[in-house]
Amino acid sequence: MVTLKQIAEKLNISITTVSKALKDYPDVSKKTRKLVRETASMLHYKPNSFAVNLRTKESKTIGLIIPEIVHHFFSSVIKGIISQAEKKGYLVITLQSNESYELEKQQIELLLNKRVDGILISLANGTADYKHLSEIIENDTPLVMFDKIAKVVKCSKVIIDDRKAAYKATQHLIDIGCKRIAHFRGPLLPQNSIDRFLGYKQALLDNNISYDSSLVYLLNDMSFEEGKFYANQLLQDHKDVDGIFINTDLVAIGAITEFNKQGIKIPEQINIVGFSNWFMASVISPSLTTINQPGFDMGKKAFKILYKEIKDKKEKKSIVYRDEILETDLVLRESTKN
Amino acid sequence: MVTLKQIAEKLNISITTVSKALKDYPDVSKKTRKLVRETASMLHYKPNSFAVNLRTKESKTIGLIIPEIVHHFFSSVIKGIISQAEKKGYLVITLQSNESYELEKQQIELLLNKRVDGILISLANGTADYKHLSEIIENDTPLVMFDKIAKVVKCSKVIIDDRKAAYKATQHLIDIGCKRIAHFRGPLLPQNSIDRFLGYKQALLDNNISYDSSLVYLLNDMSFEEGKFYANQLLQDHKDVDGIFINTDLVAIGAITEFNKQGIKIPEQINIVGFSNWFMASVISPSLTTINQPGFDMGKKAFKILYKEIKDKKEKKSIVYRDEILETDLVLRESTKN
């Protein structure tokens, strides 16, 4: 490691002058500043980032906690966050909660101890208590939640209107003539699975279709396997179902796989709408009609808001929390009629 | 932020005693140590990690550079790395090179300036010069390469035997009776696309099938779209091809989509073998025979080796570079006969 002392000795000037020159202080002559910079570069001098952090009280890193990395939507979000952070000179530490509240809690503790400048989080399905999130705010660390959020926590949020999107998905099934529409819903806790369920229900009611709770299947881990399992279950429980709105594409793809295997014709016998627009949705056969959820943009937006809050905090401005709602659209494909 | 001073004042003891107590020094009485720890915990005291870094000369973070995050194989690798790092108390900063050499160079500079304790990298396709990698080693920062590596760089590497795996894939096509076998290969530079091509060629030669360079298509970005494009190109160029070994699953899935669209029967008319075993390979129709590439294990292994090298460096032991070669296997599915 090259030190300021070595540069000073090489140029036969004081360490203080070297230090000032590198910070571009005007009380060092232009000529000396130039000479010091050139020498530093030649010697591959790197400022000690630990000392810089200590002085500036900034780490120029942020923490990101997501439930699952190997997941098309979340990896798109990560990509959006990282691309934007890099532009602003921030590095991103990523942690995976595995949908576990306990792990999420520990990870927040870890990030706070690490003194990251801000935290981005999408909650685990298991998270029902928000004390660990309040701790971030009490610690005066900017926090932005995205996708799976807790409404009661006071911070900025980047979401889609899950209720509206689910309404749109269900309305499409009604518009193409479906009368008995099932819903594969997500777990009870995350706000987005509640909202998608409510959007489904509202669309039925607004179209004078009576809500039948036996048509709603509560999923646990939202996996491909669960999609297969509940598609089979549905065939046994309700022979008359002609449409399904499914909480996420991975589950919908599992369901399509099962229906294909059992010789059920999609969309002739059952119409299917998914949610998220995973890449896979466009390549499976039949391809999947779904709600396009803009992961990359969500990541970019979440970082932008966090960045502004970090800046505002530094400049001792008061932080104004924002709810940013991104637009979604219905992508029509082969799994629904027309 | 709670300081040591506040703890000291509260207990009416010296700051030095508090500091020693928190570090569990035996010259502070057991009783005092316990009291200090309890008080620190009650006041939510967090050590200043910047000062700790400066003292220990460690950041307890590592850097990870990969070409692309939204990619089943690489996101599996990230997951493997993060899961293992967390166990050992390390945080992971992830950067995406976008297959760009320039970006990769800048990112390494950034990570070295940040003083990460070690770097894990899978090279961009555009990387032909390795000076930026040598700089990591000259900087005395442990480096482990995985998947897309540079053979000439002196560091530990975690790879699969791409040549052997490609040989196995091609041999399978020969074993089921294919006589004219095409290859969609990756770009010229990355070692893994060279090795997969060489494995393909060797299998042909060992089976007395003459090598025809017009059957080898050089791909650029290895995308779904390229798979569709070259599937169509192949149909125009060579009507007699009965098997294809494709460098990666995403491209193979593009090819299957195009063949399906044009009414070409798989495997009756063309047998296809992919590489990597993306999740999608199991759900597309027909499902894809492919080489299973263990991404999660590769990530875990790469971190384990890096961790050992960080530890050895700290203990001033000499570092012995290792080449770790992970096993692959051929997963038989519907896209090849039998």
Automatic annotation (TrEMBL), chains A, B:
Keyword check for Glycoprotein: no
Molecular function (Gene Ontology), one example: DNA-binding transcription factor activity
Ranges annotated as spanning the membrane: none
Pfam families recorded: LacI, Peripla_BP_1
Residues annotated as signal peptide: none
Coiled coil (UniProt feature): none
Keywords: DNA-binding, Transcription, Transcription regulation
Residue ranges of every copy of the HTH lacI-type domain listed in the record: 2-56
Keyword Transmembrane helix recorded: no
Descriptive protein name: LacI family transcriptional regulator
Organism: Polaribacter gangjinensis
